[in-house]
Prior knowledge:
Subcellular location: Cytoplasm
Number of strands: 17
CATH topology of the largest domain: Aspartate Aminotransferase, domain 2
Distance between the termini: 39 Å
CATH class of the largest domain: Alpha Beta
EC number: 2.6.1.11
Protein name: Acetylornithine aminotransferase
Bound molecules: pyridoxal-5'-phosphate
Order of helices and strands: EEEHHHEHEHHEHEEEHEEEHHEEHEEEH
Strand content: 15-25%
Strand order of the largest sheet: 4-12-11-10-7-5-6
Binding site for N(2)-acetyl-L-ornithine: 126, 265
CATH superfamily of the largest domain: Type I PLP-dependent aspartate aminotransferase-like (Major domain)
Structural class: alpha/beta
Number of helices: 12
Shape: globular
Radius of gyration: 21 Å
Helix content: 25-40%
CATH architecture of the largest domain: 3-Layer(aba) Sandwich
Keywords: Amino-acid biosynthesis, Aminotransferase, Arginine biosynthesis, Cytoplasm, Pyridoxal phosphate, Transferase
Amino acid sequence: MMSHLFPTYSRWEIEPASAKGTKITAVDGKEYLDFTSGIGVCNLGHCHPHIEQAVTEQLKKFWHVSNLFPQSMQEKAAKLLADAAGLDLVFFANSGAEANEAALKLARKATNRSKIISFNNSFHGRTFGSMAVTGQDKIKNGFGPMLETFIHLPFNQVEAFLKEIDQNTAAVVLEVVQGEGGINVATSEFLKVIEKACKDNGTLLIIDEIQTGIGRTGKPFAFQHFDIKPDIITAAKGLGSGLPIGAVVGTAELQDAFGPGSHGSTFGGNPIAIAAAVATMEMIFTEQLLTETTAMGQYLYDQLVTTISKIDGVLDIRGMGLILGIEISGNVPEVLSSLRTKGLILLPAGEKVIRLLPPLTITEAEVNQAIGILESTLTNITSAAL
Ligand SMILES: Cc1ncc(COP(=O)(O)O)c(C=O)c1O
């Protein structure tokens, strides 16, 4: 049958019929263990009852009224988000790319500068600004000239960075763990040098927490593992548990740059998405859930190191909390396809990495099941390739 969708995605062979927790049931009745969480979105597992209830309650009140009305639930969501990040003010958008787009606009207006530094292998989205700031040619190929004041530097290389940052630099944009680019973790030294150089130059530090935020690493935001304070963070993905929402979170000093009429979005901060975000943050930003996430991240990492890292062709295991990667020498799409036939759904990251993004509510039994499938699949694939 001819598809009427642009072929922008190479899709898998599984059509979901329903999903609950860590399980997806396909239309043919087959069950899968979902270690993708909808690409880092359903951090509480699929269809969490608390989120369902919050969304259902809002559905019965009103769906959309526009941002011309005051909305106390938006205020509540903004306070939860700002408090968790140690920042002050929030602008709500509908996606990660939109949040980054807004953050770039905010930084340029607040500093009255246009130069933006970001890093190779980063991913920040597909709109023009977020694409231009992304450090991967494959995302930009074919779309013509990008933005000439956007500079890309090697990740984790202090000297190259110090040579480039100057008093014309509006902002530095980075992911603490590069998600799409291969699960590359920033070093503490790199982050500290960036933070200091930003202060010295009057440059804003923007941390893209779209994949790493909302509890994924065992803290509300990944930057909180390091002793640094960004001026702006962006969040999306896990913020709405599957309802579309994005957010820019910044310091009070930025207030004047985003005054009335400076930026906006019809759907940004939509009441249904906001209801999901409030319920999600109330569940995730708790000591108990974050402690459990840290423990399960450690458990999964330890299992990967003891069982998987020994297999021929496995080159590295890395990440933070429950954003983890297995670097292999084999063909990642082929391995992922074999894993799916055995009931485990995983993601790629970069060319050579298998990415694990299970829900934060994952159990030890589910981790053990996934490790068993990974072990048998990777052993067979690598021995077949030899
Ligand atoms: C770090 C990061 N930034 C930005 C984005 C873009 O988010 P969205 O797809 O919601 O536009 C993503 C999506 O994968 C991401 O991982």
